[in-house]
Design brief:
By secondary structure, this protein is an alpha/beta fold. The protein contains 20 helices and 9 strands. Strand 1 and strand 2 form a beta hairpin. Helix 1 runs parallel beside helix 6, helix 5 runs antiparallel to helix 6 and helix 18 packs across helix 19. The protein starts with a helix and ends in a 17-residue tail after the last strand.
Amino acid sequence: MSTPGSTRHLVRDLGIIVIFVLATMMPFINMPVHMDDPTHLEFARVQVEHPFQQDIPGYIYFGQYFESFRDTHPRGHSLLLSLILRADPSEDEAPMHATFLVFPLIAGISMYFLARRFDAPPLLSALLLMAAPVVLVTFHSLMTDPPGMSMWLASVTAYIYGSDRRSMLLLAAATIFLLIGTFISYQVLSVIPLLMAYMLLKRRRSLAEIVPLAVPAAAFVLSALATRWQYGEWPMFSYRTGLRVMPSDMLRKGRGILVILGGVIVVPWVAWFAFIRKKPDLFMAMAATAVATAIALPFYLSDDLTPNQLILTILFAPVSALIFWRLCWGTMAPRMKSDDVFLALWSGGVLSYCLVILPYASPRYLLPLAPPVVLLAARGLKQLSRSNGTAFGIIGAIAVLATLALSVPVAIADYDRAESYRTIARDMGERYSAPGRTIWFDGDLGFRYYMEKAGFRILGPDDDSPKPGDIIIWANLAHAWDLSPQLMERSIVADTIQIYGRLPLVTLNYKDESGIYGHRNVMVPFAFTRDFSELFFVLEVVRPEQPASGPAGQIALP
């Protein structure tokens, strides 16, 4: 039974979480459409008129034409976006992001109650989670990751409380959250076996606890059968590249995860205090640092690693090792607790499907791993205070501010890269529009979204139709295919435009193999460099369709 004092304490904490979320999200409310956002918006446009349609007719995706395009996401997310488009067809960025603020609020509040249940400081846990670089950056997008993680957290929290308290209302809420999450992101399906494990660990097998897991599973199967009946094919459960389970692929993904994990959830300068509690922890940290240095340094000396890759590997990989160590320690301790086993299963499940099923290492794929890791970190930081409330408050505030010291610059750098596409679309129209001239572009994602919105035409990989006087905009990072060799021979480089962010930090860079959203060869989540956020080549077509003989007109683009 709650007392007036405990109620006031709860209201205060939840108010702090709401203020913190709004303070970290509102400055990015005008975030440009970015990464996978345009594809979700394309489906949303279709679903405004046809809510249950699961394909886009006649769609070009990364240079490939599809008569009927379907992707690997359930249609619940784009259905939500279609409701926003019904209210505001202009696709103005601010209203869409304002609507999506509900998801970080759900995630932060769910984390608060989850931490209370798992003996971690609840307010610190919620703030550390929402301040983590991977959360702060990805929650500014319109992709499936923010709502998917929010529903994951909400369903786990509601189910655990409902199971522990025998509350039918909370178990019904867990069913709803899990249903919504399942139709937003297939990753949320992982919650079903995870909660089955919780039920078995607690030796509970009542019908009331089985139904919240059975209903979403049955709904998923029925929806898959409906898709099979409608399209003659099963839903797109995996990327078109197929499963990457060859040893070289697994090694590449494992290498990326090992470095990424230690830098995007609990930042290193907080992790050292949070995870090093006893001499074995210190020994593990020192050994991991020595091993990471011994492996990375020879590669750097032979020019196989860049300075960014060397420094971030030595900085982040030991933190990942510490995280694995702390997760395993709870399951190996003499008095093993079922709660610690549950957190280890949660983490191990996410890591397993990231390593086996998903196509490459990506910080956003590790989002569901953030809650259990943050819980362990918050527990460790609490132990530093030795039950001194004032000391704990200071330690917690320093930890959150230290995390924001990395997260906010990364979020700014990601905003600047997204803004480069909105800027180039506006500037190219002002600079190159002319009667009888067509402006073409080669690229996808946010770049494609703004170029199409400006009225420019997408140029396919084999399209040689541009005429003399036409302009082609080619994006270095966002380009999705190579231009036709014949077209290249008929064109000259009229201009190159480098757009730099406000900070010496980038969230995508092929030289350093960095990517906060991931790509095939990602090794580090971001890179500290004064390199451009994006580079654009402006090509002008100068000769008609019959190319000149010889290679003299051939353009070489990076």
